[in-house]
Amino acid sequence: MNPAKNSKAGKNIGPKAKISDPASLGSTKPRQARPGRANGLNRREFIKAMGPSAAGLVLAGLGATSLLPSGCTGTLKPSTGRPTAKKPNIIFIMADDMGYGDLGCYNKNSKIPTPNADRLARQGMRFTDAHSPSAVCTPTRYGVLTGRYSWRTRLKKGVLNGYSPCLIDTSRMTVASFLKQHGYATACIGKWHLGLGSDKKTDYNKPLVPGPNVLGFDYFYGIPASLDMTPYCYIENDRPVAKPTLTIEAGKASEDGWWRAGAIAPGFKHVEVLPKLTEKAVEYIDNHAEKSPDKPFFMYFPLPAPHCPIAPADFVKGRSQAGGYGDFVVEVDWTVGEVTKALARNRLTDNTLIILTSDNGSPGRTKINRAHYSIIELYGHYPSGDLRGIKADIWDGGHREPFIARWPGKIPPASTSDELICLTDLLATCAAVLGVELPDNAGEDSYNILPALLGRKPGKPIRQAVVHHSSMGMFSIRQGQWKLILGRGSGGFSSPKNYKPKPGEPTGQLYNLQDDLAETNNLWHKHPEIVKRLTDLLEKYKRQGHSRTQSL
Ligand SMILES: [Ca+2]
């Protein structure tokens, strides 16, 4: 196959796009930096700032960053020649329904080539015990942006749809509003899925307020909800790029997954969404580097893939040994590569903290409910790796996530951390990066994981515990090696969903993950004292309205 020849994505990304020719998929070579730019200074400014010795080095062809301490691309002061610490750019890429076992760097038996994610892991830190606060989309997104568990809101189970009102209270601090307050440019590019407007049913003929712009994002470009949820349209800031005036029947883009029938904007094609959003993200980085080089930026980039409908672009078809799903993960990896290349050519790599994770587990593990076929049976690929369960479940396959963080000079390269963390930790960690305290009424379930990112070993866990939550609203709490589940069954997609115990049987599940990662041996009856301790801690977290112990 010649991917360039067959690429629809390449044709449809538009004349302004700077994303790679898909024929170079997997290529690791960063493009040349824009001529004359070095750390936001043009060549003349840079030489003036660094003095004659720098001029010689630049003329000798050495990159500007090689002159600076690793990890620091600070504003240069002529008086001392030393850089001053500069706020890092922060990019948070969150795949949709990508499993713990999909990426090669997490699963040596993965059937999916993911060279860009693997490289990010080699350049940064890979967490092995990171969790989304929920096993499904909307509540995880709420938790990422607010640092607060979503079950504290009106959303006690399930997810929103494309016509739901905005879930985040407009008075609540978000990662975006916090960073904006501290001088950042802020952008959300991708799948929103947190509700738009305040009407009971969103009216796409009216400004979509409140939405991302009201919640701290200077710029938003994306889709309202999941790729299988109507209405199918792009939104820029607070209105559709084209209104969803047409209708489409339910359909599919490949052998797996489908989209619902309903409203669609003229020209909208499911298969084009990930390339389009990638183009927008790359464009944002390029534009920001050119127009606002001295201002740090935060880009929240929630991808619509590999969520169903499984809709890989032509240029990735056949690239994996795990069918259309695997190919869609390859496309996610390509997106990661496009972002890192954009950083490199703009010489932003060294001063950017980039995180790659997923919002919940993969649904593709078994022939259960919405998973239309078994990726394991067909391809021998295990999207959940060695974990039990799939998306939506309370078992770790539902919410233990790949989590890779790179920040050159700060985060030790090729490192691994087994620190127990949660995606709600982004807010407190951003505050720590800036050296700012969070107010008590923000980030109630957010812990600062910066010490772990920097490779420090404080000797005790950063988090007191993490609370897990399934699609059906089943709770679990994790502390150390112990995981307590308040209920029987998966609480999600896997069968049994909610097993009703017979008299005398355990009413919940207790696992020791240290020697039972697959959650097979229920120790509920064996350790009643642990059951009580963790039950009490969970009740305390619910009662007091927060679980954060830092600065509270
Ligand atoms: Ca998801």
How would you explain this protein's 3D organization?
The chain is α/β, with parallel strands linked by helices and 552 residues long. The protein has 3 domains: 44-86, no CATH class; 89-189 and 210-222 and 270-453, Alkaline Phosphatase, subunit A, CATH 3.40.720; 466-544, Arylsulfatase, C-terminal domain (2-Layer Sandwich). 23% of the residues lie in helices and 16% in strands. It has 13 helices and 21 strands. The chain has helices spanning 3-6, 8-12, 43-50, 52-59, 115-123, 137-146, 175-181, 273-291, 323-345, 375-379, 426-434, 450-453, 528-544; strands at 37-38, 41-42, 75-76, 83-84, 89-95, 125-131, 185-191, 219-223, 235-236, 239-240, 246-248, 262-264, 297-302, 352-358, 400-406, 415-417, 421-422, 466-469, 475-479, 482-485, 509-512. The strands form 5 sheets. Strands 5, 6, 7, 8, 9, 10, 13, 14, 15, 16 and 17 form an 11-stranded mixed beta sheet that branches. A 4-stranded antiparallel beta sheet has the order 18-19-20-21, with helices on one face. Strands 1-2 form a two-stranded antiparallel sheet. Helix 3 crosses helix 4 and helix 8 packs parallel to helix 9 (323-345). The longest helix is centred in the middle third of the chain and has 23 residues, at 323-345. It is globular and about 60 Å long. The structure holds calcium ion (CA). Calcium ion (CA) binds at residues 96-97, 137, 307, 359-360.
Structure at a glance:
With 552 residues, the protein is an alpha/beta fold. It contains 13 helices and 21 strands.
